[in-house]
Write a structure and sequence with these properties.
Layout: H1 3-18, E1 29-30, E2 34-40, E3 47-55, H2 59-66, H3 75-78, E4 82-92, E5 96-104, E6 115-126, E7 129-139, E8 151-152, E9 154-155, E10 158-167, E11 170-179, E12 181-182, H4 189-201, H5 203-218
Parallel strand pairs: 6-8
Antiparallel strand pairs: 1-2, 2-3, 3-11, 4-5, 5-6, 6-7, 7-10, 9-12, 10-11
Helix pairs in contact: 2-5
Length: 220
C-alpha cells in the first residue's frame, strides 16, 4: 500500500467532513466550550461525530498530548485511556507518517473492554501557516496477528485540524475534530454514543488535566 497516498486520502476525508457545505443537522450535544454534531457514517453502520472547541494551551503542548512517543509525543504517559502503543513502521519522517498498534484500557466501567487498533497516523503541517496542524488517524490493513483476548476494533478517518487564533489578549487553539470508531464486539450503540459524546464534550478539560501530568514528566 502507498501509505503516503492513504494518509492524504484520509486528510481529504476529514476536510470534506468539516466543510461548511456538509449538512450535519442540529446540534447533538454541547458543553461550555464544545459543540458536537453527529450523522450516519458512510464507512460503517455507526455514527461519525464532529466537534468544535477551543482550549488555552500551546500548539506544541497539544501535539505532545496527542502523539505517541514514537512520533515525539507522550500520549501513553498522560492519557488514561491508552494502555500501550507500538510503532509498527515509520513510513516517513517528513511528513510524519507511522503505522501504529494501540491498545485501549477498558472504559465505561468495563462495558467497553480493551480494544486493539491498527492505524496510520499522519501529522500534516502547512508551509504557508505555521499556526495550523492536522493530526489524522485511520485504520489500515497491516500484517499483524490478532492479540489473544483483545477485540480488534477499527477507526475510520478521524482526527483534528487545529489553528492558533487570537482571543482578546491571548492565543488559544481552535480545534475542529472528527471521530468515527467501530468498537466491534457486542457493545450496545447507546453505550458507544454516550462514551464518545462525553469524551468530545470534555476534550478541553481532559487536555488541561493531561498537561499537568506532562509538566511533571518534563520536570523530572
Amino acid at each position: 500500500m502507498d501509505y503516503k497516498a492513504e494518509a492524504e486520502r484520509c486528510y481529504s476525508v476529514i476536510t470534506d467532513l468539516l466543510g461548511e457545505e456538509k449538512d450535519w443537522g442540529p446540534v447533538f450535544k454541547s458543553s461550555k466550550d464544545h459543540v458536537v454534531h453527529r450523522k450516519e457514517s458512510e464507512h460503517f453502520s455507526g455514527y461519525v461525530y464532529k466537534c468544535a472547541y477551543t482550549v488555552e494551551i500551546s500548539l506544541d503542548d497539544l501535539l505532545d498530548l496527542t502523539l505517541p512517543r514514537c512520533m515525539g509525543g507522550h500520549i501513553e504517559d498522560v492519557d488514561s485511556m491508552v494502555k500501550e502503543i507500538q510503532c509498527l513502521e515509520q513510513v516517513s519522517e517528513v511528513p510524519q507518517i507511522s503505522i501504529i498498534r494501540g491498545v485501549s484500557n477498558p472504559v465505561v466501567m468495563g462495558l467497553i473492554s480493551s480494544r486493539e487498533f491498527i492505524d496510520i497516523c499522519y501529522v500534516k503541517r502547512f508551509e504557508e501557516n505555521n499556526n495550523k496542524v492536522a493530526v489524522i488517524t485511520s485504520g489500515v490493513e497491516y500484517d499483524v496477528p490478532l492479540t489473544p483476548k483483545l477485540v480488534r476494533a477499527k477507526r475510520y478517518p478521524s482526527g483534528f485540524i487545529v489553528n492558533v487564533v487570537e482571543q482578546g489578549d491571548k492565543q488559544v487553539l481552535e480545534i475542529k475534530q472528527i471521530e468515527q470508531r467501530d468498537f466491534s464486539g457486542s457493545v450496545p450503540s447507546s453505550v458507544v454514543e454516550k462514551f464518545i459524546t462525553s469524551e468530545l464534550c470534555n476534550q478541553a478539560t481532559t487536555y488541561k488535566k493531561s498537561l499537568k501530568k506532562l509538566e511533571k514528566i518534563r520536570n523530572k
